[in-house]
Amino acid sequence: MMRYAPLLALLLLGACGLKGPLEPVPPAAMPVAQRGQTVAPTPAQMLVVPVQAAPQRVDDPVKKSEERPDDRFNLPPQ
């Protein structure tokens, strides 16, 4: 019986899928439009991450395994 437990768990987990679009709980309402906008954003628009929130890392200019140029400001601690 115990060896079938993971299979049973996967079947139960697969049975709880989404059946329709997400809606707020009845006493709550969708977010109002932001100041300066005439239309409130849709849930799909709110899930899009802006580029400024997740920028790409560009802090290491060396892309290949090569010798770094000499840095005159890289001094040992005093």
TrEMBL record:
The keyword Signal applies. This is Argininosuccinate lyase. Keywords: Signal. Residues 53-78 are annotated as: Disordered. Residues 57-78 have a biased composition (Basic and acidic residues). PROSITE patterns: PROKAR_LIPOPROTEIN. Residues 1-20 form the signal peptide.
